[in-house]
Amino acid sequence: xxxxxxxxxxxxxxxxxxxxxxxxxxxxxxxxxxxxxxxxxxxxxxxxxxxxxxxxxxxxxxxxxxxxxxxxxxxxxxxxxxxxxxxxxxxxxxxxxxxxxxxxxxxxxxxxxxxxxxxxxxxxxxxxxxxxxxxxxxxxxxxxxxxxxxxxxxxxxxxxxxxxxxxxxxxxxxxxxxxxxxxxxxxxxxxxxxxxxxxxxxxxxxxxxxxxxxxxxxxxxxxxxxxxxxxxxxxxxxxxxxxxxxxxxxxxxxxxxxxxxxxxxxxxxxxxxxxxxxxxxxxxxxxxxxxxxxxxxxxxxxxxxxxxxxxxxxxxxxxxxxxxxxxxxxxxxxxxxxxxxxxxxxxxx
Amino acid sequence: xxxxxxxxxxxxxxxxxxxxxxxxxxxxxxxxxxxxxxxxxxxxxxxxxxxxxxxxxxxxxxxxxxxxxxxxxxxxxxxxxxxxxxxxxxxxxxxxxxxxxxxxxxxxxxxxxxxxxxxxxxxxxxxxxxxxxxxxxxxxxxxxxxxxxxxxxxxxxxxxxxxxxxxxxxxxxxxxxxxxxxxxxxxxxxxxxxxxxxxxxxxxxxxxxxxxxxxxxxxxxxxxxxxxxxxxxxxxxxxxxxxxxxxxxxxxxxxxxxxxxxxxxxxxxxxxxxxxxxxxxxxxxxxxxxxxxxxxxxxxxxxxxxxxxxxxxxxxxxxxxxxxxxxxxxxxxxxxxxxxxxxxxxxxxxxxxxxxxxxxxxxxxxxxxxxxxxxxxxxxxxxxxxxxxxxxxxxxxxxxxxxxxxxxxxxxxxxxxxxxxxxxxxxxxxxxxxxxxxxxxxxxxxxxxxxxxxxxxxxxxxxxxxxxxxxxxxxxxxxxxxxxxxxxxxxxxxxxxxxxxxxxxxxxxxxxxxxxxxxxxxxxxxxxxxxxxxxxxxxxxxxxxxxxxxxxxxxxxxxxxxxxxxxxxxxxxxxxxxxxxxxxxxxxxxxxxxxxxxxxxxxxxxxxxxxxxxxxxxxxxxxxxxxxxxxxxxxx
Lengths: 349, 636
Fold this sequence. Notes:
The complex is a heterodimer of chains A (349) and B (636).
Chain A: H1 7-18, H2 20-37, H3 39-42, E1 49-52, E2 55-57, H4 80-90, E3 95-97, H5 137-173, H6 175-189, H7 193-203, H8 208-217, H9 221-235, H10 238-245, H11 250-261, H12 263-287, H13 298-307, H14 312-339, H15 342-345
Helix pairs in contact in A: 1-14, 2-14, 5-6, 5-8, 5-9, 5-12, 10-11, 12-13, 12-14, 13-14
Chain B: H1 2-28, H2 32-41, E1 46-48, E2 79-84, H3 103-108, E3 115-117, E4 124-126, E5 129-134, E6 140-145, H4 159-170, H5 177-186, E7 187-194, E8 197-202, H6 209-213, H7 230-233, E9 245-246, E10 252-253, E11 257-262, E12 282-287, H8 291-300, E13 305-307, H9 311-317, H10 323-326, E14 330-336, E15 345-348, H11 358-367, H12 370-377, E16 383-384, H13 407-416, E17 421-422, E18 428-429, E19 437-442, H14 448-460, E20 464-469, H15 472-480, E21 486-489, H16 502-505, H17 524-534, H18 539-556, E22 559-561, E23 563-564, E24 567-573, E25 576-578, H19 595-600, E26 603-605, H20 610-617, E27 627-630
Parallel strand pairs in B: 1-7, 2-12, 14-27, 19-20, 19-21
Antiparallel strand pairs in B: 3-4, 5-6, 6-8, 7-8, 9-11, 10-11, 11-12, 13-24, 14-24, 15-21, 15-22, 16-23, 17-18, 25-26
Helix pairs in contact in B: 11-13, 17-18
């Protein structure tokens, strides 16, 4: 119901498309998200295709292939980069195709006599260099981006579900419920969120779900204020009264009548909520209270980078990546706000 | 209104009176009679005799023939600028908060004991005692105090100060149960023969009896007002020691800096083994709360020496190519020493399911690629630790080595434990479908990188290591309550001349919270060996039993040795001069603030060189660069 494209929404979207900066930002971010979805095909230590003794293998999404599958003398995961070199030197018609960045975000690529962090090098295929334990910075950035975006989108959904439901209820029922809930929200939002996360993270090792849970637990309150106001406003309109007269229940009125009319509030906040989630996760990782090692994360890269300023490629590339993504999201947010501007589209009776 | 006024008057009179009583009470306070009563009440511990009562036939030693290790000719004077990362919480030696890091500056390094040790040869040399002798019971020593020995306030050191030491260490006034307990467990008595002659006895004979008995005195005159309020009353009063430095009250700037000043006309200025050392007049300790900031201050010349132990500092932050090094302003020195090592390693909890199988533990030992970490992450500076107690020069373990990294050996061990096939992610699975996956717990954030490398390598052997880095308190709690699977941590050596096995490996400490038996080792054979070891009376017996125990520890594979640093290395501005050999075999840098280097007192400051060095920094003529490795004591 919310997403049915009525003429007004269509006009809003057309307006969004016409705002070039926001629209292009949206396209770039969407493209990045799609690429991140297929990260294993672009940045990975597993080969895309291997032809060995007449058989064709596609190792990317399958179970691991021990080195012995390809005539190597070990039983652990085949080292495809070495395998590629071997195939070339043997020239028996075996070949394999590696992704653009032939490293996964966890492996330490050490070379004798060279100590990490190493500088960016096209020959070594470490396009952004390596970090303090010899892991590829680009691989960690890319997978870190994917994890951060997954985190942000889940955060968005959860914060919206809780925030919208409670905010709407406060606005719709009003009275005692509103006053009580409002006080609870005020007290809850005054809890020192960062300290609580730090305490929890130092006692338990957080995983994505737990971290998400904690962050959402202390972030849903912001949304309630806006939804409460929006609902109060809509509730006083005639169409709500008409629905009540027709015998519609509270749930139906809230979700089928009021919510679609408050959609501009909801949509406008999406990019900024995503930004919040990205920065919170990065900050927590930076402080060492985020996702456990060795999860690739931007905060952890920033932390390493600031502690090793003599290796500027770590902090430099992370900083640039962070600025780009946050700018894209902010540009989208600005454009959405303008496109959904209530002054342009709300028509009072 | 009047009533109120009368009441107030009465109240103020009452308060004034109370104040007076308190003051008179303080003036009257004197601990001496109480101490004397205490000696009388414990006649089995405190003995009073005459010189005629000394046993006949005692052989008195005085360190004759032992070579001195400090070289004459060092310049006197100057101020050393150093840093501390936090202001000390107290200047007391005992009681709450007294065991902070600052203690090494004021107590451990400079408060002289009865005997000293020649750190290159390990022989005992005179310090506060001019001569000493051994009783044939093996647990008693006789000491003749140096008549010249003085505290920094000029009061001579006398036998009564040793009686008083036992009184204060046993008293509840110092709020220090650990010291109380140590004294009652270690010592069995003290005898005063005259003002300069005493005998001290331990509970049982030990090969390192000298280290146990050669205590520092406690000046009775300083503790006149000792009472239950000791922690507050003495919070910022520094007990006088007979050592070369003291802290003057006007040099205590709480929260920002503290200075140590050399005692004028120090009594031991010309005594062998103490002369030619402690050359600087003042040591300024500035509080710098961030190591990176302190390092920048060092590079600016505000701090004279800096710890470059970590590869990050040695290779990246102050490489040999740095202009300050190239222009000869800062010298870099590596010194190989021989001291008991901090025991970094995997402590596998043998009480956990699966880990109770020796085959699994042995497999983990083969799958832990510490060699790669040492070689590639630590630039080859760190070397593999060989046993659970490396670095005791008198208790070596020739021929005992840790298991090398070997995927095949690890797979063979895991196969014996039933883990024969790899799952889709390459991790081994047994017939019941259990994955070979364990959590490594650590509370050192610095080990994060090391663990990520070990995790990647272990996966080759089909072993999954999950990394759990907790904050200090939580991590210690988890490990001390033995809830861990594998702990990656280190224990500090006790400071004795031979290792302690009881704490770490005796079944009395297994499966109990708050003990150092982190592997939960409970092995009857080991218990017997430890019992024999703890009652061993000769060094040969100690060596023999320790060797057997190390073999057993290796065999049990619950402790997997990680790595050790066989040297320390520092950078220093060129106006600091070290002697030719730089330092001694048993020297240690004492941690990031170099308390150990400073405490040895084997350096001096050439204030005359300062302008030349600073000119070399600021585009004057450069000095020859100096990067030296002192490997006289490097283990072959």
